[in-house]
Amino acid sequence: MVQLKTDKQIDEMRAAGRVVGRALAAVRAAARVGATPRALDRVARGVLAEAGASSPFLGYRPRFAPVPFPATACVSVNDAIVHGIPDDRPLADGDLVSVDFGARLRGWVGDAAVTFAVGRPRPADLRLVETAEAALAAGIAAAVPGNRIGDIAHAVGTVCRSAGYGIPDGFGGHGVGRGMHEDPGVPNEGRPGRGVVLRPGMVLAIEPMLIAGGTDDYTCDGDGWTLRTADGSRAAHAEHTVAVTTAGPRILTAP
Q1: Is 182 within any annotated ligand binding site?
Q2: 111 among annotated binding-site residues
């Protein structure tokens, strides 16, 4: 069931979203050559602690997962698409890093992701990230009352496919509120004019995931969490939590 939020509740969700935005900015600033994903997770934990917020990621265990997620941030490097568990492998010059992060503050959740290069970026990676961000922007622009979930999915998918990138099958965005994952699902590809009608008070995580090689295939690591491109090509992930309002889309996880 889709849970509509009041204007006051959306303001409260914005407070959680600000924590997410600050954490992602802090992690990006700390992501230098030689830093480890585990160290980046510690940076994110520090932002949560300073804000008096908690992590909806830490200890999360959906049905597919063999173990609870052991960190506050998903840190996915190079060919890892999403759900990367932070480890101690130092980041190298030119690594492509996606960080997915959430915060729970006063019972409300914010969820966002960003992808960036460490050190000297590859031109192909810059194009991949720019396309992910453009797909996210297109999806957000479609999040207006009267449109449907399919309009968001179509907007995201059109940008990705037009650039020649793959979209991992079965993964996309979702509703956000008291829980990190609520109805409705928000696919990254679809037909316009289909699906749930968008109404003021709906809050959605819109999150394009792109595979540079152009295929949609992925594998899962033995940890049961990390998804990787099947062809070994690089991946990018961009996400914001967005409220549907009569005044237009409101991004809740901007810094």
Answers
A1: no
A2: yes
